[in-house]
Amino acid sequence: MNNRKVYLVWIAILMVFPSLFSQEDENENKNEKVIITDADFEKEIKKNTYFPLANNTKKIAWKNTFYHEKIENVKTFNGKEYIACFEEWESGRVKKIYLREEDGLVLQYEACCTMETIRFNEDYKKGESWESANKKIKYKIITYLGKLKTPYKNYNNLLVIRKIYGRSVYDFYYKKKYGYVGATKRGVLISYVIPRNPTKEEKKEN
């Protein structure tokens, strides 16, 4: 695998737009009750980005269930290389999206359309908005100074991206040097990262 493919792999692992395809009916078993450590969140990552390039898969709570975010091999569509990033749900369902990075953009392949969907643009400022390729989903940069409280950690200075799909409104939260940390729906916490090596003591972010 060449350097560009490796680069794409790490982008896909830490995509913070978890669950474009998450459904309202993901309400099966309750999440594991564990507490995260500071070390699990404060890894040393060289690139100062909301989508760091690091070998770090995630277990993510979503409502009353969870999924594991994993990757597959590079695939080519229309002469462009994408990483197959898939979610393996507690129920056994598996869903995939195909992602690539180019010039500060994180792009998603859309089988329906000739255009790709922008998942993030490094140049976007607060208040900037855009649509998915099929025009069904709207995104907006809410702030780069967001706050989020999860069962394991309180966060500050987060990128917050709003997703509007029909009547559903979600806010997704991203921490610089770590990536996706959680999501809310109309202000209510519905998703957060579950640590690999939890402790019994909750840690607070300064």
Record the SSE blueprint.
Layout: H1 3-13, H2 38-41, E1 58-62, E2 65-77, E3 80-89, E4 94-102, E5 105-108, E6 117-121, E7 129-131, E8 137-149, E9 154-165, E10 168-175, E11 179-185, E12 188-194
Antiparallel strand pairs: 1-2, 1-12, 2-3, 3-4, 4-5, 5-6, 7-8, 8-9, 9-10, 10-11, 11-12
How would you describe the overall organization of this protein?
With 206 residues, this protein is mainly beta. It has one domain (3-194). The protein is 7% helix and 47% strand. It has 2 helices and 12 strands; from the N terminus they run H-H-E-E-E-E-E-E-E-E-E-E-E-E. A 12-stranded antiparallel sheet has the order 6-5-4-3-2-1-12-11-10-9-8-7, covered by helices on one side. Strand 5 and strand 6 (117-121) form a beta hairpin. The radius of gyration is 16 Å and the shape is globular. The chain starts with a helix and ends in a 12-residue tail after the last strand.
Rounded to the nearest angstrom, the radius of gyration is: 16 Å
What is the distance, rounded to the nearest whole angstrom, between the alpha carbons of the first and last residues?
40 Å
- What profile does the largest beta sheet have? 12 strands, antiparallel
Q: Give me the count of strands.
A: 12
- Low-pLDDT ranges: 19-46
Structural class from helices and strands? mainly beta
Total count of helical runs of at least 4 residues: 2
Shape: globular
Tell me the β content.
over 45%
Q: Domains counted in the coordinates: how many?
A: 1
In what order do the strands lie side by side in the largest sheet? 6-5-4-3-2-1-12-11-10-9-8-7
